[in-house]
Design goal:
heterodimer, A: about 425 residues, B: about 250 residues, 10 helices, ATP binding (chain B), nucleotide-binding (chain B), P-loop_NTPase (chain B), ATP hydrolysis activity (chain B)
């Protein structure tokens, strides 16, 4: 079916502003992705999947400017022993990065793609699988036009986390990054991501987990107020593999985080969680799609949002259980804490189940600070502001607890406490 | 210590008068008990004194050590030395009991211009107090009151009282939901805190708690007023004859 003219024009205008990197093993995949993108067209306000989030600023030919936040806050994960890999406005900086050689993992740059590479079998492949049954045009755009990114092959158990740091320097940067992560059978790694990245950031991460492979993914999206981001994670899980992803988003004018999980092997586990804090001009959308196509897999979605001063939070989460995915254990919860009456939370939880022997549940709530709890704390002498912060942190902590590593949990909670403290002056 | 004069209170949301002129003075070192039938205004009195929303004071006053309680924020009343042991302690998921107590103790100290308690000192004190109340380390780590049994919640209230060392303690039906052993434990906790400098106001339906926490003065409250005041024997009278006789006698 032909696209409506307006959509086609908008898509072509965006494409015209980009150039498809030529040469190397990735080019055929990029061209296929471009064809996918042209067939789907970029999203607009009429698309059902974008009902709660206006895509305009994410798809426009030119990125809206975003000022770089000046802060003396120590960057997250700074004191941690980790392999640092730094991007500045979406360009890998070898100078600021550590030597990427680390036992148990090999890391290459997408931008240096030669004729042959293991990533050829994955690049754009998981993204393409994730286009059905719901189109994700910004991910196809990413595959076609990504200018940089890392190809991370986890072959063993690296001794420290691989830490991707996204620095935002220019007010007008418009970055497109694409990472591919392949975790071999029995291998295990932790990927950290933090920083605002660019004025506008389109990022795609494809994760392929072989039998028994484990990947822990913890990211913090950087608190530049005007930044915009559209991100996708596509994860495919083979037998007995484990994927745990947690995202903390503090500020940002516009964020759309899509996570697409597909179980292709039995007895695998995927947990996707997120916490966000928004104040004022803030729109945050978590869109998750989990497909169970194997037996006895466990999926869990836990999302918490704290909103104030007119901030908007969106959650669209789906669990699809295919006919043969018996013994599926699916869980989904999305909750918002509205700190005033100007903020809003929009949720669309969905279950679609074709197998008969499954346990799936979902819930969504939205409310103010618990008055009884507040009174109880104050009656013990805790000042109102401190009591509200304690209750807010407690609310967020339930999502942060999805992160396995307790020291990382502490780092993340500290960020939340910092955000709250800044608002108390 | 606590001085309540001609206190009139109505519900904020509706035109319903709950307290209709309560006069009560609790002296330092004394235990006063308030008994009364359901709906007499006992719990309202405790809420109004501690500063809960939803009530409007239409007349009268309440002072703690000469300071106007009704003019203070909830947390200021606590820092001034007022403590309410809740009839229904609130569950606070996500906030550890220990964190909660340390925040409370140090907030009160700060409000009073005292130095904050160090972690080590706090730990030492809380361990000792918790042991007396048979509260184990696990309960201290768990979120405030979450998954606690009725008895555990009430013991936790008394632990908070012991840690905060208030000047004036109000116990709102602390005996509700307790079996005999739990009541004994709670009463022992309260008795250990009895002190010349501390006043107690024990609100209860039944005389049995007063077997364990022996009051100096007993008040009978009905229809928003204190209608009779006497010694411990008044509680026994209620136990034997119910409230009907007293209500009739006063009417």
């Amino acid at each position: 079916m032909a696209l409506p003219q307006a959509k086609q024009d908008a898509t072509e205008a965006r494409i015209a502003a980009l150039s498809l990197p030529e040469g190397g093993w990735a080019e055929p995949a990029r061209r296929e992705a471009l064809a996918r993108l042209r067939a789907m067209g970029l999203p607009n306000a009429r698309d059902e999947y974008w009902k709660f989030t206006r895509p305009d600023t994410l798809v426009s030919a030119e990125a809206p400017a975003a000022r770089v936040l000046e802060t003396d806050e120590t960057p997250l994960f700074d004191s941690r022993d980790r392999l640092k890999l730094v991007f500045v406005d979406g360009v890998f900086s070898a100078e600021e990065s550590d030597d990427p050689s680390l036992e148990g993992v090999t890391i290459d740059r997408l931008a240096e793609a030669k004729d042959i590479h293991w990533a050829k079998d994955l690049y754009g492949v998981l993204e393409a699988r994730g286009q059905d049954p719901v189109a994700r045009p910004l991910a196809a755009l990413n595959t076609a036009f990504a200018t940089d990114g890392l190809l991370i092959h986890v072959t063993g158990k690296p001794s420290k986390p691989i830490s991707l740091i996204y620095r935002h320097v220019s007010d007008t940067s418009d970055a497109i990054l694409h990472h591919v992560i392949k975790v071999d059978a029995g291998a295990e790694a932790t990927i950290l991501e933090n920083g605002p990245a660019a004025a506008r950031f389109n990022k795609c991460m494809e994760v392929d987990l072989a039998e028994g492979g484990r990947l822990h993914h913890i990211r913090a999206q950087g608190r530049d107020h005007e930044r915009r981001a559209a991100t996708h994670v596509f994860a495919r899980l083979e037998k007995e593999s484990v994927f745990k992803s947690f995202t903390l988003s503090v500020n940002g004018a516009m964020t759309r985080n899509e996570v697409v999980v597909e179980f292709t092997g039995d007895d695998a586990v995927a947990h996707v969680a997120g916490a966000c804090m928004g104040d004022g001009d803030f729109h945050h959308d978590d869109t998750v799609f989990v497909t169970h196509d194997a037996v006895n897999c466990e999926s869990r979605q836990v999302f918490k949002k704290v909103l104030r001063n007119g901030a908007t939070g969106v959650f669209q989460g789906k669990i699809l259980v295919k006919p043969d995915a018996q013994k599926t254990d699916g869980y989904q919860i999305s909750q918002s804490l509205l700190l005033d009456e100007d903020s809003q939370f929009l949720a669309k939880p969905e279950l679609e189940i074709y197998a008969d022997d499954v346990a799936c549940s979902h819930g969504s709530t939205s409310g103010a600070i618990d008055e009884d709890g507040l009174f109880y704390l104050r009656a013990r002498g805790v000042p109102r502001g401190t009591a509200e912060d304690l209750l807010t942190i407690a609310f967020i902590a339930e999502a942060v607890q999805e992160v396995e590593d307790e020291s990382l949990q502490e780092d993340l909670v500290e960020r939340v406490a910092g955000w709250l403290a800044r608002r108390r002056g | 210590m606590l001085e309540i004069k001609n206190l009139h209170v109505k519900l904020e949301e509706e035109d319903k008068q709950i307290l209709k002129g309560v006069d009560l003075t609790v002296e330092a070192g004394k235990v006063h008990a308030i008994m009364g039938p359901n709906g007499s205004g006992k719990s309202t009195l405790s809420y109004v004194l501690s500063g809960r929303d939803g009530y409007e004071v239409t007349d009268g006053s309440a002072t703690l050590l000469g300071e106007d309680l009704l003019d203070m924020e909830v947390e200021e009343r606590a820092a001034a030395g007022l403590f309410l042991a809740f009839q229904y302690p609130v569950e606070i998921p996500g906030v550890g009991n220990m964190t909660f107590l340390r925040t409370a103790v140090n907030a009160q100290r700060k409000a009073r211009g005292q130095e904050e308690m160090s972690s080590a000192e706090f730990l030492k004190v809380i361990r000792a107090r918790a042991k007396d109340l048979k509260i184990d380390a696990e309960m201290l780590k768990r979120p405030v009151n979450v998954g606690f049994s009725g008895g555990e919640k009430k013991r936790n209230e008394i632990l908070q009282m012991a840690m905060l060392e208030p000047k004036m303690c109000i116990l709102d039906e602390t005996d509700s939901g307790l079996d005999v052993d739990a009541m004994k434990l709670v009463a022992d906790g309260v008795n250990a805190l009895r002190d010349e400098g501390r006043g107690f106001l024990v609100i209860t339906h039944y005389q049995r708690l007063l077997d364990h926490i022996k009051p100096d003065v007993v008040h009978i409250m009905a229809n928003g007023r204190i209608i009779k005041t006497g010694g411990p024997e008044l509680a026994l009278e209620v136990e034997q004859n119910g409230y009907a006789d007293i209500l009739e006698e006063v009417a």
